[in-house]
Amino acid sequence: MHVEIHSKTGNNVVAAAMQHITRQCQRVGVNVTFSPAQPPKGERRIALIFAATDSTWSPAEEAWFRTLLDGGVIVLPVVQDPPTAQFLPKSVSHINAFVMDFFGAVWAECLADEILSKVWLQRRVPKVFISYKRTDSAPIAGQLYDRLNHLGYETFLDEASVPRAADFQRELKWWLNDADLLIVLASPRFTLSKWCMEEVSFCQQRFIGVAVIQWPQAIYEGAARIPFPDMGAASKPPIIIDRAQPGQMLTLLPEDFAGDSVRGSADPTLPERELTQDGLSKVLKLCATQRTVGIKQRLDDLIPCAQRLLNGATPVAGGFNPADLTYVNEGVRSFVRVLPFRPRPEDIRQACIDGVSYGTVAGCFYSENDENDPRAKALRWLANAKRKESAELSDGWLWPSLGGKLW
Q1: What is the mean pLDDT of residues 234-260?
Q2: How many angstroms separate the CA atoms of 373 and 194, rounded?
Q3: Which of 28, 103, 280, 383 could potentially form a cystine with 107 if both were Cys, beta carbons 3.0 to 4.6 Å apart?
Q4: In this structure, are residues 3 and 39 in contact, taking their beta carbons and an 8 Å threshold?
Q5: How many Å from the N-terminal Cα to the C-terminal Cα in the chain?
Q6: Which fold, 127-298?
Q7: Any idea of the CA torsion for 200, 145, 104, 68, to the nearest 10 degrees?
Q8: What average pLDDT does this structure show over 361-365?
């Protein structure tokens, strides 16, 4: 992945961005280069344009930005606050910018996640699912839902995301199967919820990333324990904590809860509290760093599954994407793009464009969870319909994996 940087801001801003982009790329095994180095031929690219108050741009810069856009390069403007957007180059003024102030102290981590999502994962909108026990953490779940949606995430919260008259569990699993990350609000009584534990189990079976938010250790240990409903002297943290991998877990501090100090209070009413802005920033940082890691892990599990089910499919020779495979079925050469999420129609069409030189048929392999869902049937029908547009596209196809078998 190549990142081209154009900046009218201070060096500290650019240095912070480069540091966190590099660190996040290392976590997921992606090689990254920065300008002025030239990108290798065919390398995925993004141009970051940092504007500051009173920034001016030369005609040569404006022309170059138009060239990038015309060439299909992703261009992401970055500004400190909304008013600064007026100082962006005119050639990119129509593009929605990344606003650092919206993300607070964790803007650099979130920018790195945004870049990887758009360039490497080709995921238009990040999707996360909040798993929580209402009697323990409903205010925090609602606060997190509002904040993530404001930042451009597509977020599932049971009270807000299930249409009326819909099958609740079917809708929940349909949504969860397409999520990038499960955010577990692992409050003291989390494991008492059958539905919460089913959500965790579903994600573990399907290799969906999990970020665990643990309540303060002072609830479970120490001479001056923080009171929590139904928690006795022998109470322990939820068992899901023992299954969390390094980097997946955040332990909140008593000071992360909004309102009066919880220390020394006979009844701190933690189930009724939201998080402070600092506490909320900690959760956002974990989501930003863990989301792409979780997606990479799911992709790593799906690629060998696709190779097994597609009878010896092999990576595209010389390709930049290890999730692009080719295989031959009954004499027909096919190009297969493995996706760690449910493909959109434009994902399938793009695979048909990218795979035209590798096979007569091209499309996407992904993990489906409900063959009877009319939306899954419609997606399969749409992808598999024969509608050859030109010699620049292969015929489309979809290879859904369902229960370890091809559907």
Answers
A1: 84
A2: 24
A3: 103
A4: no
A5: 33
A6: Rossmann fold (3.40.50)
A7: 90
A8: 92
- CA-CA-CA-CA dihedral for 317, 320, 323, 326, to nearest 10: -20
Which sequence spans correspond to the domains of the chain? 2-119, 127-298, 310-406
Work out the mean pLDDT of the chain and round it to a whole number: 90
Whether domain 2-119 has CATH 3.40.50.10140: the reply is yes
| Element (DSSP H or E) covering residue 213 | strand 209-214
* 3-class DSSP assignment, residue 82: helix
The letter for the amino acid at 55 is: S
Q: Each residue of 159-217: pLDDT tens digit?
A: 888 777 778 888 889 999 999 999 999 999 999 999 999 999 999 888 899 999 999 99
**SS3 labels along 227-291:** CCCCCCCCCCCCCHHHHCCCCCEEECCHHHECCCCCCCCCCCCHHHCCECHHHHHHHHHHHHHHH
Interior/surface letters 119-133, b for 16+ CB within 10 angstroms, e for the rest: bbbbbeebbbbbbbb
pLDDT digits (tens, 9 = 90+) for 9-63: 988 999 999 999 999 999 888 889 998 777 777 788 999 999 999 999 999 999 9
Hey, what are 247's tokens?
């980097």
Please classify residue 107 by burial: count the beta carbons closer than 10 Å to its beta carbon, then call 0-12 exposed, 13-18 middle and 19+ buried.
buried
Q: Is there a common fold for 2-119 and 127-298?
A: yes
Q: Are 213 and 184 in contact (CB under 8 A)?
A: yes
pLDDT by residue (tens digit) across 54-112? 999 999 999 999 999 999 899 999 999 999 999 999 999 999 999 999 999 999 999 99
